[in-house]
């Protein structure tokens, strides 16, 4: 049997194991093979697409969008949202401070000008948003399976004064997320999953920058109608200024944005704000997730146990709850009462994970547990996993073994 007469099923089976280079060569063997392998080629190499926030990357995307057959294949979008200019500037500035290198000062000024030029280019042309809108409009069926945001980090030696880096990088770091959300609304597509890469999670979205979406907020009801999973790190480094304090009684925009995600089943949310002291109370008051099955919360300041229950006990489907670096800032309630409240009020809960949590004064929450190797001995741990058939009984037991210490973190905002 000649190559031109191979059954399509066999061709698709063979090409399922070829890398891109070999696949392209295979398609060039004959016109018939190229035609038979076309669907597999589209499924394997065009359903998933990666974008970095550079002009060349968007030009490549634009070229793919224009293709009559491959342009509508996208289902999984991976976005490298690493703020590369901010990182380079931070490294140069750190090196200058450490060595007073004059050459590095010149390089810093050059990089700063380039960073400003790129930022002005995006703002003036909106080429990134226009390309995203065009790409989303071409999606077959008008629904995107997933969007994943990745943020690469830096070497540990550049971690000093990390908060200052977070403040100076937030515009560049937030632009990808805000632009993608804007494009989703403009193109009228729906998306099932918005996530951050667990291996490259060194980034967050500025709450202030997110407010740029406020004119289109009402359109997110439709955009997020089929959203099942959301993973988001939020930061706000602004401080109240005289005459510009947050309006009393007005729900923060970020809370109104999150309230649009009412059908999600999985939520991973960390939030730290120097502007809104009790963001969690706003979240618990205005957000209802009746289908929520898995919830991971991090870095929130919680002032009442009732606010936590308002969020997690409003659903009868919650099976998994994780609390990481949560600060309970109550003068009358403590962590043992919080754990008891979860056991008493969330009957569907099957798994509770507690990691590096604190009380208001910075006291670390630890649990006294049996030593795994020394019989009759105990040890203290700040991380606890509770699961099993008697998870609620285990919660109540561990609530009685909470120990607090004053070894609080130097900074709870990282």
Automatic annotation (TrEMBL):
Matching InterPro entries: F-box_dom (IPR001810), LRR_dom_sf (IPR032675)
F-box domain ranges (all copies): 1-49
Lineage: superkingdom: Eukaryota
Designated name of the protein: F-box domain-containing protein
């Amino acid at each position: 049997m000649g190559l031109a007469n191979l059954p399509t099923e066999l061709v698709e089976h063979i090409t399922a194991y070829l890398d891109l280079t070999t696949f392209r060569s295979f398609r060039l063997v004959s016109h018939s093979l190229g035609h038979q392998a076309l669907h597999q080629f589209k499924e394997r190499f065009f359903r998933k697409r990666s974008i970095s926030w550079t002009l060349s990357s968007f030009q490549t995307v634009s070229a793919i969008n224009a293709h009559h057959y491959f342009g509508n294949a996208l289902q999984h979008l991976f976005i490298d949202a690493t703020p590369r200019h901010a990182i380079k500037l931070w490294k140069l500035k750190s090196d200058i401070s450490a060595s007073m290198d004059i050459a590095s000062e010149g390089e810093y000024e050059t990089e700063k000008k380039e960073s400003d030029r790129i930022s002005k280019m995006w703002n003036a042309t909106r080429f990134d948003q226009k390309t995203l809108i065009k790409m989303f409009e071409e999606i077959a069926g008008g629904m995107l399976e997933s969007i994943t945001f990745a943020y690469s980090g830096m070497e540990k030696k550049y971690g000093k004064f990390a908060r200052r880096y977070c403040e100076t990088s937030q515009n560049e770091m937030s632009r990808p997320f805000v632009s993608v959300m804007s494009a989703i609304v403009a193109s009228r597509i729906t998306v099932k999953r918005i996530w951050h890469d667990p291996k490259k999670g060194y980034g967050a979205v500025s709450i202030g920058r997110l407010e740029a979406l406020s004119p289109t907020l009402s359109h997110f009801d439709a955009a997020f109608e089929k959203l099942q999973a959301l993973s988001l790190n939020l930061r706000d480094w602004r401080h109240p200024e005289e005459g510009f304090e947050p309006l009393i009684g007005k729900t923060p925009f970020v809370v109104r944005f999150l309230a649009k995600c009412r059908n999600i089943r999985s939520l991973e949310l960390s939030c730290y704000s120097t502007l809104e002291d009790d963001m969690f109370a706003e979240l618990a008051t205005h957000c209802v997730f009746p289908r929520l099955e898995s919830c991971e919360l991090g870095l929130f300041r919680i002032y009442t146990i009732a606010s936590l229950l308002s969020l997690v006990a409003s659903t009868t489907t919650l099976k998994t709850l994780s609390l990481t670096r949560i600060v309970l800032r109550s003068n009358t309630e403590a962590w043992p009462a919080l754990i008891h409240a979860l056991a008493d009020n969330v009957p569907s809960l099957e798994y509770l994970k507690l990691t590096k949590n604190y009380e208001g004064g910075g006291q670390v929450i630890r649990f006294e547990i049996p030593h795994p190797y020394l019989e009759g001995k105990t040890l203290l741990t700040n991380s606890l996993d509770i699961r099993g058939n008697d998870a609620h009984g285990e919660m109540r037991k561990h609530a009685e073994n909470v120990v607090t210490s004053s070894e609080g973190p130097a900074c709870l905002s990282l």
